[in-house]
Amino acid sequence: MSTNSLSDLDLQIASLSVHADDSYAMVSDVAPPLHVSTTYHYNSDPSKLKSAKEHDIRVRDEQSSFIYSRFGNPVVERVEAVLSAILNGHAVVYSSGLAAYTAALAYYNPRRLSMTDGYQGCHGVARIFNRFSGLEQVPLYDDSVSTGDLVHLETPINPTGLSVDLAKAVEFAHCRGAKVIVDATFAPPPLQDPFEFGVDMVMHSATKYLGGHSDLLAGVLVTKDPQVRLALLQDRGLLGGAPGNFESWLLLRSLRTFKLRVETQAKNAGKIVAWLDSAIKNNEIPALTKVYHSSLQTDEFVRKQLKTGLYSPAFSIEVESVEVAKSIPSRLKLFHHATSLGGVESLIEWRAMSDTSVPETLLRLSIGVEDADDLIADLKAALLSFSAK
Ligand SMILES: Cc1ncc(COP(=O)(O)O)c(C=O)c1O
To answer: Staple partner for 219: which of 94, 126, 127, 383, CB 3.0–4.6 Å?
Structure first.
């Protein structure tokens, strides 16, 4: 359910993250309980019982009780109330980002998928759909895009953190009768709201910034259309992509501090990128050759999309050789060498380990909530250690 008693108030993200699910509390506890049951008692009043022919058991309305956890449970509903409020639409939650993406492709069932570069897993899901339905993958702005097709934009893009022009792609797609889905994982609110540019669906890997603690897998699709939400819930009830009860509870708990975390991470990243950029321009660190980040793009659309002046907390650098790229993680003290992003702890990844599409000199950084100056000092010492040979 995405309606709640606070909907008349003009609350901001920080308040919504804490209160958008208040009306879903069943007892008086302040912290939401974890419900582990997979099945729920039917109504003990025989006159209230409805057969499956009379109502859709996959979609709970306010009058009916919970039935079976795959169709909905109290924790998932609370998470969806918060995510609907902060992501500015009707949110449907899944067991991972890729489960959400799979659900989106199953719902739109396009003939052609026109895609930006970006997270390789989404390209992999599209290849599986090619086996099911013959789905054809074509580049962004391909001339073949037409009615019934889907344009998939990722912005900012994984792993570079560079932005693509949403307004331009939406105009291209809608003129041709195609729909647009945006994977906005790299810039969650308040950094960016893709709905402002007329996109049809927004997706996030909630494993990243929404979860924010590297301890849960989840994904979310967001739509402005209540009928699409209904169809997604019906599909989810059958495809089985519902999130686990415990993961949903962890996500709900994490969302309480969502804005604090994301803003701190984005501010830290901005400071670190500015330092890296000036170090390259002043030739201070010979081993460092490139830094990629939306904050360094000069295109006007970037400022319109990331209008708060904060940019993705994840970005990439390139260094002088593959050997240096492989060695840097082990010379850092405050960054874990690990894949993924969005958690409170800073990560760095020699990206070639998990992505075949990038140069082997590229490292992806995911900035956490540590002190930015400490992170800069750590990076500086590691990067300079290669010129002291
Ligand atoms: C941009 C992006 N989209 C989607 C995903 C997939 O999300 P998940 O790992 O939660 O399935 C990822 C994972 O890294 C990602 O970076």
So the answer is: 94
